Amino acid sequence: MHQDPRATATAILPLVGGPANVVSAAHCVTRLRLGLADRSRVREAALRALPGVLGIVEDGTSYQIVLGPGVVGRVAEEFDTLLAPAGGAAELAARGAELRAANRRRNATPLKTGLRRVADVFVPLIPALIGCGILAGVGGLLANLGWLPGFTPALTVLSSAFMALIAVFVGHNTAKEFGGTPVLGGAVAAVVVYPGVAKVSAFGAALAPGQGGVLGALAAALLGTYVEKWCRARLPGTLDVLLTPTLTVLVPGLVTLYVLMYAAGAAATALGTAASWLLATTGAVAGLLLGGLFLPLVMLGLHQALIPLHATLIEQRGHTVLLPLLAMAGAGQVGAAAAVYVRLRHDTSLRTTIRSALPAGLLGIGEPLIYGVSLPLGRPFLTACVGGAAGGAFVGLFAMLGTEVGATAIGPSGWALFPLLAGGSGPAATAAVYAGGLLTGYVAGFAATYWFGRLEPDRPAAPPPP
Questions:
Q1: What is the pLDDT of residues 230-287, one digit of tens each?
Q2: CA distance 267 to 214
Q3: Does residue 260 contact residue 212 with C-beta atoms inside 8 Å?
Q4: Model's pTM, two decimal places?
Q5: What SS3 state is found at 27?
Q6: Can you list the domains of the chain with their CATH numbers?
Q7: Distance between CA atoms of 311 and 28, rounded to whole angstroms?
Q8: Residue limits of the PTS EIIB type-1 domain (predicted)?
Q9: Integer Cα distance of 399 and 88 in angstroms
């Protein structure tokens, strides 16, 4: 039975200290991210016990409640409605910005802060990437089968239009995240995809529309934000209205045309070449490392910093070859949780947690199992990484043998990734390799945890001495 979003939001609010304790509220694909004035006011045990709450994550900048994809957006909307009487959206946003800035100064390293801010540029784009990716997969399947030939061009248009203009959205979000005017960020980044750039030459060669892709758009909008801030700090109000937007488009736009598009294009090409070479020559080793190290990135909340790499590969090749390898980490986590469930037969509380979190884990949402099961137990977190490494090595090995597995979009994982799979060997072979990787991850994660997870099975109490 589906939980009512309004009921979920209403139940969460008092458990996090009420409206007065919430100074910011936002959400990503799976988590409701709250800025709290006083975290000691949170009743975490009751919060974890709420139906629909899959886990709790604290990363130093926000208090994150894992609700799952699809659900979190509706709950966040209701949560915002409940917060509105507590002072209005403007006041909430101002207090939230102040809290986030303070938390970041106290707890975040410059590297982690930078990675999270870049991730925040791309996270809002994930729903569109998923939708367009599924349409691309359906269109490709219909084309391969020769079905509905008059309809597949329409699917191609629908799935490709967003990717053709993704640079504009990246520019808009970059300016918004880094304190500029979003529409100016979009205007500067639009240079990257404008067909007229073919008439401009840089470094002795004509530019191509889209050259540099999302990396070029990110760099262009970031430069535009700094130019805009510089102008606004120095120009009087009468000139600011006219000159700031003009200089914000002109200066970064010229730098984008004559420097950034060429440089970002070279970087994007190098990334695609490196990914292909890596899988073709060292696929098993690369898969082992990527699958084995991804859970620690998820634990730290840094996995979203890989989104620009995925987006670049999708833009170049139509799919990212990294995501299926990284998805094997979730399979290792599921196998480890299953082993804990089997070994600790009499730990009713833990087994209940596993039963509630396992369906989400099978669909690639790993946080509930990480924070509710493997990480608190210690060693099972490491053995889950072993399972992920084994699954990644399996998929990487087949990439070396010529069966490359890619994903046409980012966001889903686990079983939910099947509709988004793509590869040069056909849908059946691609799905078979991915399924084999998941099975390998499950089995390896289970075996490593069962035998080496330092889990002490419950034993009946010894009879009292005579």
A1: 999 998 888 898 999 999 999 999 999 999 999 999 998 898 899 889 999 999 999 9
A2: 11
A3: yes
A4: 0.74
A5: strand
A6: 5-108 (3.30.1360.60), 124-272 (no CATH), 288-452 (no CATH)
A7: 17
A8: 6-89
A9: 53
Indicate the average pLDDT of the chain. 86
Q: Active-site residue 385, yes or no?
A: no
- 103 closest CA partner among 58, 61, 40, 59: 61
Cβ of 91: how many Cβ atoms within 10 Å?
A: 12
- Joined together, the tokens standing for residue 302 give 């840094």
Distance CA 380, CA 382 (A): 5
H helical segments located in 16-109: 44-48, 71-83, 88-107
Rounded distance between C-alpha atoms, residue 313 and residue 317, angstroms: 6
Q: Count how many Cα atoms sit within 13 Å of the Cα of residue 349 in the half-sphere of its side chain.
A: 4
Q: Which of 205, 220, 318, 316 is nearest to 269 (CA)?
A: 316
| CA atoms in the 13 A half-sphere facing the CB of 3 | 21
The residues, any chain, with a CB within 8 Å of residue 408's CB and separated by 6 or more, are: 133, 134, 136, 137, 314, 318, 319, 420, 421, 422
- Catalytic annotation, pick one of 28, 132, 231, 385: 28
* Span 316-370, pLDDT tens digits: 888 999 999 999 999 999 999 999 999 988 888 788 888 878 888 898 877 778 8
Q: Report the alpha-carbon distance of residue 239 to residue 244 in Å, rounded.
A: 8
What are 205's strand-pairing partners?
202
